[in-house]
Design brief:
about 280 residues; 5 strands; 2 domains; DNA-binding; Arc Repressor Mutant, subunit A; Rossmann fold; DNA binding; SIS_dom
Length: about 280
């Protein structure tokens, strides 16, 4: 990102913030104003005023602009990945990248929001799951994990008018789980707009730190999938789905175990007809 300001006209406090912002640009999206204030030794109010002095309405707007400026093409993302990996041991590099994403997710994920998400899933009449593109498989995984322990999970159409066929059935006692990465989409905007009318809850699973989706959703769980402009992995959101399913099974208690025993009995009964 190109910073367009004259440091010479700043006060000493503003110079500290400007210096920190330029030197920490790669990580600036992950900081809060309180953390920047602590690092620079100025007040939070001074940090908040600084963004307006360089032409942004708020820190949130600056983050949005930074995200948009970092969007890269698929070819560029792949090339950046290949440049980072050792050519003779790419698998180790990929594993290390996924481990790093999982560790960052462990730090970023709000445990209170996670518990709220589990409670919302367990108390919902029906669970609708929406995802598109390379992360659409997460909706199928969520459905598989939760259906087998007694939850009614319905995967929504990825795009087009078929989405309305799902939304018309979502009401006040339901929840829609949205896998929203990179940016919002017209389909997600429709889901969020309809939530205000129909009254269903929304659970957003995202790697974005700044997005209108975050403010619009009832519950937000944040994961790390790698650098914003880089190659994205799905180890963290996949682990989160498994975690939600395990926590839901624990909260459901005997009912979940009974459903799994029924599944096992059904398999045994028809094993000669449909071998494992």
């Amino acid at each position: 990102m190109k910073w367009e300001f004259d440091v010479g006209r700043f006060s000493k406090s503003q110079q500290k913030i400007a210096d920190f912002a330029m030197k920490s640009e790669d990580r600036l999206l992950y900081f809060t104003e309180e953390e920047i204030a602590a690092h620079t030794g100025v007040s939070v109010a001074t940090v908040s005023r600084f963004w307006r002095s360089i032409g942004y309405a708020s820190f949130k707007e600056l983050k949005r602009v930074m995200q948009e400026s970092r969007q890269a093409t698929p070819a560029r993302k792949m090339q950046q990945l290949l440049d980072k990996l050792e050519q003779d041991d790419m698998m180790s590099g990929i594993l290390a990248m996924n481990i790093a994403n999982l560790e960052e997710t462990a730090r970023r994920l709000s445990r209170s929001e996670f518990e709220q998400a589990v409670e919302a899933l367990c108390s919902a009449r029906r669970i609708f799951a929406y995802g598109s593109g390379a992360t659409a498989f997460l909706t199928d995984l969520l459905q598989f994990r939760l259906n087998r322990i007694g939850f009614d999970v319905r995967v929504m159409a990825r795009s087009g008018h078929e989405l309305y066929e799902n939304l018309v059935h979502a009401g006040e006692e339901d929840i829609v789980v949205i896998f929203g990465f990179v940016r919002s989409s017209p389909e997600i905007q429709v889901i969020l707009s309809q939530a205000k009318e129909a009254g269903y809850k929304t659970l957003l699973i995202t790697d974005l730190l700044v997005s209108e989706m975050i403010e619009a959703c009832s519950i937000v769980l944040q994961v790390d999938r790698g650098e914003i402009e880089g190659f994205h992995t799905n180890a963290a959101p996949l682990a989160l789905v498994d975690g939600l399913a395990a926590a839901a099974a624990k909260r459901s208690g005997a009912a979940a175990m009974e459903r799994l025993e029924q599944l096992h009995a059904l398999r045994k009964r028809y094993v000669s007809m449909i071998p494992k």
